[in-house]
């Protein structure tokens, strides 16, 4: 397979994987302060994502893919807020196990990786265009 096509396919798989990662982080951030629907019930659980490499026989190279998504088993944060509708009989409310600093760092890393993959695709397209221009001028 053409090396430029291979590079573009690898970068495209990275775009897809990091796009999924950003959606999961966004969901975690959106639910960071949600509570359970009823008194004493569990709130939203932080989602996680796991990647794996996948060998593409046509390309003869590895691509990245989303292996699985899961749920973080870290304990929920508990705060005393007796006026909250989600408070239990002791006035304690469970909040999601989402750490805003971790999520923001994850979002920043995913964004940078996404941009790097996008830049790779742009560079490959530019190289193809330059090659076509060279062939036209010959």
Features:
two-stranded antiparallel sheet, 138 residues, two-stranded antiparallel ribbon, alpha+beta
- Shape verdict: elongated
**Secondary-structure element sequence?**
HEEEEH
Strand order of the largest sheet: 1-2
Mean pLDDT: 94
Count of DSSP H/I helices: 2
Largest sheet: 2 strands, antiparallel
Low-confidence stretches: none
Q: Which secondary-structure class do the elements indicate?
A: alpha+beta
Count of the separate structural domains:
1
Count of DSSP E strands?
4
Please describe what this structure looks like.
- The chain contains two helices and four strands; from the N terminus they run αββββα.
- With 138 residues, it is of the alpha+beta class.
- A hairpin with a 4-residue loop joins β1 and β2.
- α1 (3-30) packs antiparallel against α2 (100-137).
Write the layout of secondary structure elements.
Layout: H1 3-30, E1 47-56, E2 61-71, E3 77-80, E4 92-95, H2 100-137
Helix pairs in contact: 1-2
